[in-house]
């Protein structure tokens, strides 16, 4: 378990490494929900809806998306996309900080920024067409090695990536960019996930 106060203190001191986008820029929100527990808060994920031709169909991710010209910055993108996708107003919470920017593995031209928010309650959710489901998983569950797994990604010749199972009998897995952000988040807090 990681108390929310530890998360707050750690993020307030951290200075992230930022990457200047060459082409595309996107932003996501890592939402820490304290409604059930401040000692073992939950992290909110979405399951992306299945759309033909979308390589991220069905993936478990953080709410977010591409920056638009009307967004004043990437944090505004994360707020807008979260409101559009799941109906959560992040201005009702507190922005704790930002993780290191990451570049996409499919296209190194795409830079993704991750902003960490804390909210005391996030539902009821209002899902748009891009989202099939919303999940909130306790930090302790994400850090429990019994849920750690590997993903063999056939599109890349069967390359193996670390992941986290959502639960017994649930075939969905957190992996890819979302996992990489989780890995960095927990590393800041002194915990180690299998390296991506």
Task: Output the number of helix runs.
Answer: 4
- Percentage of residues in strands: 25-35%
Task: Report the CATH C-level class.
Answer: Alpha Beta
What's the Cα radius of gyration?
16 Å
Here the CATH topology equals: Nucleoside Triphosphate Pyrophosphohydrolase
Helix share, percent: 10-25%
**CATH 4th-level superfamily:** Nucleoside Triphosphate Pyrophosphohydrolase
The biggest sheet, with number of strands, parallel, antiparallel or mixed sense and barrel status, is:
8 strands, mixed
State the total count of DSSP E strands. Answer: 11
- Poorly predicted runs are none
Tell me, briefly, the overall form: globular
Quaternary organization: single chain
Number of domains: 1
How many angstroms does the end-to-end distance come to?
22 Å
Indicate the mean pLDDT: 93
Query: Which structural category fits the helices and strands?
Result: alpha+beta
How does CATH name the architecture?
A: Alpha-Beta Complex
- Provide the succession of SSEs: HEEEEHEEEEHEEEH
